[in-house]
Design goal:
- It is an enzyme of class 3 (hydrolase).
- Helix 15 (384-394) packs parallel to helix 16 and helix 22 (583-592) crosses helix 23 (594-603).
- The protein has a 7-stranded antiparallel beta sheet with strand order 4-3-2-1-7-6-5.
- The chain has 25 helices and 24 strands.
Length: 695
């Protein structure tokens, strides 16, 4: 049982969206441009457009992943379409009329629907207001009753030329068993022939519900009803329904002050809302059919609707939150072969991700443009600049809270690193955090700023230079990946002469960093066996190169370093230092020192990522590492397997902000928590949800 009075109301559709607007819909593949009228139904279920032939196309609002306008919208490539829109003429104002709607079942399989308005800035309004409907918490988390209502709305919109509902549409909408559909229509005294049609006036909501009751009988609900209603009576009284809610649905372990039991007046309100019979409502009685609709309503949502809204304290230090994180964000498929795409950065950010990964490599000598790819594999590459532009476009569309760019930097050219830094500065502009905040200096013992302090900011996670001489260039692994990786990146003498390595402000800390330096330098002298292990477990993460001046200067609160020990980290007490672990290394640490791992995460951040042998881009179960307080549990977003579904479900809460405040026993230094302990935790009521599938 969720809340008796749901706190979320359905989204409101602005009048102009329902009234519709004239657009031209174009397609580059067919080179066809067609006049259409674009609309949203009054309940906000569908975006649909009508052609001059009266043919209609529907797009479920829940399938929309993004809306774009202006320079971010798709532009025609074919000359035929460019001529139609006079795009090659100066002052054509085409960008002020564009609208692109992106839809798809996941983040990879996308369809782009392109429109051009007749008037300027119309596309901008549509893009913003349609996306607001898409992002409304109830759009993806509506009750079963809402999804059933969506079917009725669509049936009543798809009318034949005579203005009637074709019966064949019922068969298309409920395709599982045609005979059951025919029987249900007959029960409601409606025509059932495939060439028949139904007057919309003959199919109001009450008849539709009767049709559903006949089509999908619920004997298990009848059993519940029988066990709680007055004997030999075809109804449940208000008192019986109150007893059912308080004794059967409510968890008896809940605090009665914080979660008070249902009152008779509240229960009468439920009867008023769901009971189809007016006489029963007057008598305070609920019929079996009313019971079905009550159980389908938002009061019985699996989710607590109020938790979908932003409700956490966002002023705690950054490391006190779980952060929605992506691994090898640019990949659309497997880790060894397949396409890389800048679009993936848009999609994961739109899904609420707040930490994305960029594997950066030196570009070809012809243009010296840094690229992003999965090193020493057959995956394609994309330009670094293209990814940065995609991030800048979508960083704060879903959440206003900080975005972390996790760089795995293999660009051993000072010139190209400088180009990367310049792209970050110019494309991100004021969004890029280049200096620590005055209240949070980079000193031992000083906590990290909060998500609220960093609202609208982009943070760079990249090695911060602390060496006095250039590090050796990354070595290319021998043997098995020959010819499959990105261009090799040797540092020639002229490169070294062009720019000495910058020691920067951190130079004063060299003494404190000696142990880390030794660990980092050792990674450059790996024997063949260690190299193979690094490739299989860590991938190329252990082969990063020196950060030169320009990239170093962009790094502040997220400074990566090689993990040495929990004791060493506690001694240094630097909140801005972060270590990354493969799932195997993290599991090993968790198994041997679970309490210390939790304490480490109270002070600073950790990032977990999939082992290198997950070539199919499968994911590990993230819950184990959340239980240890690990903030960035990075997953492959292109694979919607069970772990990724769990991640998406968890971060649906707190306004899809990408930040979830950890429980206080994972934050307070005076509390000790062992994730493997079975001891009871204060103010946490543990429970198990079992789902029984109907045969």
């Amino acid at each position: 049982m969720s809340l008796l009075n749901p706190v979320l109301l359905p989204p409101k559709v602005k009048a102009y969206l329902s009234q519709g607007e004239r657009f031209i819909k174009w397609d580059d593949e067919t080179t066809i441009a067609s006049p259409v009228i674009l609309r949203v139904d009054p309940k906000g279920y569908y975006l649909y457009w009508t052609y001059q032939s009266k043919e209609m196309e529907f797009l479920d609002i829940t399938s929309i992943r993004d809306t774009r306008f202006g320079r971010f919208a798709k532009l025609p490539k074919s000359q035929k379409l460019r001529d139609v829109f006079n795009m090659d003429f100066p002052d054509n104002n085409f960008l002020l009329k564009t609208l692109t709607v992106v839809s798809g079942p996941d983040m990879v399989d996308l369809t782009f629907h392109n429109f051009v308005s007749y008037k300027e800035n119309v596309g901008k309004n549509w893009a913003e207001d349609v996306l607001a409907l898409v992002k409304h918490p109830l759009t993806a988390n509506a009750s079963r009753l809402t999804f059933l209502d969506k079917i009725l709305v669509k049936l009543k919109m798809q009318l034949n030329p005579e203005g009637k509902i074709p019966v064949k549409n019922f068969f298309q909408m409920f395709p599982a068993d045609r005979k059951r559909v025919e029987a249900a229509l007959s029960t409601c005294h409606l025509p059932k022939g495939k060439n028949d049609a139904i007057n919309p006036e003959d199919f109001p909501e009450s008849v539709y519900k009767s049709f559903l009751m006949s089509l999908c009988p619920r004997p298990e609900i009848d059993e519940i009803f029988t066990s709680y209603h007055a004997k030999a009576k075809p109804y449940m009284t208000k008192e019986h329904l109150t007893k059912f809610i308080n004794q059967k649905q409510r968890d008896s372990r809940l605090n009665s002050l914080l979660f008070p039991p249902a009152r008779p007046d509240q229960v009468q309100g439920l009867i008023d809302k769901y009971e189809p019979s007016g006489i029963n409502i007057q008598r305070g009685q609920l019929s079996p059919e009313g019971m079905v609709w009550f159980l389908c309503g938002p009061e019985n949502s699996v989710l607590a609707q109020d938790k979908l809204l932003l409700h956490h304290d966002m002023t705690q230090p950054l490391n006190h939150y779980f952060i929605n994180s992506s691994h090898n964000t640019y990949l659309t498929g497997g880790q060894f072969s397949g396409l890389s795409s800048a679009e993936m950065y848009r999609q994961v950010l739109l899904a609420g991700c707040r930490c994305v990964e960029l594997d950066c490599w030196k570009g070809k000598p012809t243009d010296e443009e840094p690229i992003i790819t999965h090193g020493f594999t057959m995956t394609t590459d994309i330009y670094f600049k293209e990814a940065i532009e995609a991030i800048a476009e979508s960083a704060f569309k879903t959440s206003p809270y900080p975005v972390i760019l996790s760089f795995e930097n293999h660009v051993d050219s000072p010139r190209q690193q400088a180009k990367m830094a310049e792209y970050c500065r110019t494309i991100f502009g004021d969004m890029l955090l280049t200096e620590p905040l005055e209240k949070f200096p980079l000193n031992p013992g000083v906590p990290l700023p909060s998500p609220e302090d960093l609202r609208g900011k982009i943070l760079i996670k990249n090695k911060k230079n602390q060496f006095s001489s250039p590090a050796a260039p990354s070595k290319e692994p021998d043997g098995d990946a020959e010819g499959s990786g990105p261009p090799s990146a040797p540092v020639g003498e002229d490169t070294v002469l062009r720019e000495a390595v910058w020691t920067g402000e951190e130079g004063a800390e060299l003494e404190d960093e000696e142990v880390e330096e030794e660990e980092e330098e050792e990674s450059g002298n790996l024997d063949e066996e260690e190299m193979k292990k690094m490739q299989s477990d860590e991938g190329t993460a252990g082969l990063e190169v020196t950060a030169y001046k320009e990239m170093s200067s962009l790094v502040n609160y997220i400074q990566p370093t090689k993990f040495i020990s929990f004791e060493f980290s506690a001694q240094k007490n630097r909140s801005y230092v972060i270590s990354s672990f493969t799932e195997l290394k993290a599991y090993d640490l968790l198994s041997k020192a679970s309490v210390q791992f939790v304490d480490y995460n109270k002070r600073q951040m950790s990032r977990i990522y999939p082992k290198g042998t997950r070539m199919d881009s499968s994911n590990y179960m993230p819950q184990m590492f959340w239980n240890a307080g690990c903030q960035m549990v990075a997953l492959n977003f292109q694979t919607m397997d069970l772990p990724m579904q769990q991640n998406m479900a968890l971060f649906e809460f707190n306004g899809q902000s990408g930040y979830l405040l950890k429980h206080e026993f994972m934050r307070r230094p005076d509390k000790q928590f062992n994730p493997f302990s079975v001891d009871r935790i204060d103010v946490v009521v543990a429970t198990t949800l079992s789902i029984t599938a109907r045969p």
